[in-house]
Design brief:
Blueprint (H helix, E strand, L loop, with lengths): L4 H15 L2 H24 L9
Helix pairs in contact: 1-2
């Protein structure tokens, strides 16, 4: 579920960009980057599952 949040916040950032609202657009892109980094950290630092180790 955590990895779905970057797509939702990214879509919201694009929506604000289309509306011409720069500050919320930029803030949501930063939130998107932070949520993606937090969610991906678990996959980058954990052990590699056997099917992916080949």
């Amino acid at each position: 579920m955590l990895m779905m949040l970057p797509f939702l916040s990214g879509a919201l950032a694009v929506w604000f960009g289309i509306l011409g609202k720069r500050r919320p657009c930029f803030a949501l892109w930063l939130v998107t980057l932070a949520v993606f980094a937090v969610g991906a950290h678990r996959y980058m630092t954990g052990p590699v599952p056997l099917p992916l180790a080949l």
